[in-house]
Amino acid sequence: VTVRSAVALARREGHLALDIARRLDAADPLRGFRKRFHLPDGVVYLTGNSLGALPKATVNRLHRAIRAEWGQDLIDSWNKHDWISAPARVGAKIASLIGAEPDEVIVSDSTSMNLFKLLLGALAMRPGRRVVLTEPGNFPTNLYIADGLQRLGLCEVRLAKAPALVDAIDDDVAVVLLTHVHYQSAAAHDMAAFTEAAHSRGALALWDLSHSVGALAVDLNVCGADLAVGCGYKYLNGGPGAPAFQFVGRRHQGEFRSPITGWMGHAAPFAFDDEYVPAAGVRQALCGTPPVLALAALETGVDLVREIGIDGLATKGRALTSFFLQCVSDLEAWSGLSVVSPVDALRRGSHVALRHPDAFAICQALSAYGIVGDFRAPDVLRLGFAPAYIGFEDSWRAAAALRSVLREQRWKEPRFNEKRTVT
Ligand SMILES: Cc1ncc(COP(=O)(O)O)c(C=O)c1O
Fold it and tell me: I want to staple 385 with a disulfide (CB 3.0 to 4.6 A). Which of 12, 64, 105, 320 is the partner?
């Protein structure tokens, strides 16, 4: 049963029914992977695009890393358990998910820190150009890091909204910084087209893959991307605060210089020379001692994504979001809710954004039905459909709960309007 035939059937029947969702689940080739994750009973977890679920294998892996490696082999583990290679090893695995070569990706720090390094690296590779061009409404850390560099006098930030942004690329632009899948709307940029536009005017393209990696089949090298960063804790299921990754295209590795010259980015860290000599390749973008336990968790999450297969995940993610949007398609007419995400599944990431003036309270009210989504200020309800462990019945349940919250105006209850620190 394809989504299209299910939807056609549903149209004939005049509604989208639970049994259709169940038939889609029964035909889902990825359905067996849900049991590889810890998920609380009775909860439909629709925030895997913010914090991925816990793979069961991670519990054992961390137990081993703590008890046998750290606890038993202690410092010898840097060699014996090859802790020292973890940033490059996990980077090479992530490379296979984003259309990169194994030696083009390394894991370290946070996405924000990696943005700092790669933006400065890009500016240095385009001497005579000072402008970082990005979009208003980009994920705040992208804007804040670029603004921070501007405050240090290291660049000038220019903002322009895509697609008009292309016209703002001139001879002053060193680097175009774009997020592939928008954190709110889930709109996916045409990576090949924007990269080509940057190149045609002599600029570099730096992509933030935080909401794409592990959910969409990204092809950095086919698109000609120069630099990229992305999160480990979303669809890669690396755990809260998992380290991030950075990509430096091979053709730039001779020229790229990391602005943070820590000892782990040195050509020979254990030579303990006074003088800094950068490591060849992307390893130079390392800075300090790798977070070994966090890397062990991330590696387990990445291994699972690779086992499931990125093409299958991307196909299912599109089917899930399409199915959910069909299920809620009548709500716009009467509830004050509007769909922000693109209608075309190929232009969408694996989450869905819905706008409503009371989105915060609606999100809280959904949790009373066991539906975990998140709220993005000022008025967006975001629901993530992580294809590794979310099914069509989950999507149906989320749609049914949303309908009920809106119809019964349950979001007006005071308990759903209490603010929390993290949304
Ligand atoms: C697009 C995007 N970039 C960057 C980040 C933040 O990255 P980090 O917390 O690793 O610095 C996020 C977090 O949600 C994000 O959505």
Answer: 320
Residue whose CA is at the smallest distance from ligand 1 atom 8 = 111
Give the tens place of pLDDT for each residue, 348-385.
999 999 999 999 999 999 999 999 999 999 999 999 99
Q: How far apart are CA 229 and CA 91, in angstroms?
A: 11
pLDDT of 8 above 60: no
User: Out of 93, 318, 382, 397, which one is annotated catalytic?
Assistant: 382
Is residue 417 over pLDDT 90?
A: no
**Do residues 8 and 322 make contact, with C-beta atoms less than 8 angstroms apart?**
no
Strand pairing class (374-376; 105-107): unpaired
What is the pTM for the complete model shown? Answer: 0.95
Could you tell me the two tokens for 354?
Answer: 């819905």
Separation of alpha carbons 276 and 263, rounded Å: 8
- The rounded distance, in Å, linking the Cα atoms of 353 and 331 is 14
Positive or negative, the Cα torsion across 59, 64, 70, 76? negative
Q: Is residue 403 annotated as part of the catalytic site, yes or no?
A: no
The residues lining ligand 1, judged by C-beta closer than 6 Å to any ligand atom, are: 110-112, 139, 141, 179, 183, 208, 210-211, 231, 244
pLDDT in tens, 249-260: 999 999 999 999
Report the distance separating Cα 375 and Cα 259, nearest Å: 35
Residue nearest ligand 1's atom 16 by CA: 183
End-to-end Cα spacing for the chain: 36
pLDDT score of 7 more than 90: no
**What residues are paired with 133 via a beta bridge?**
158, 176
Q: Note whether 136 and 157 are within 8 A (CB).
A: no
Q: What pLDDT is stored for residue 135 in this prediction?
A: 98
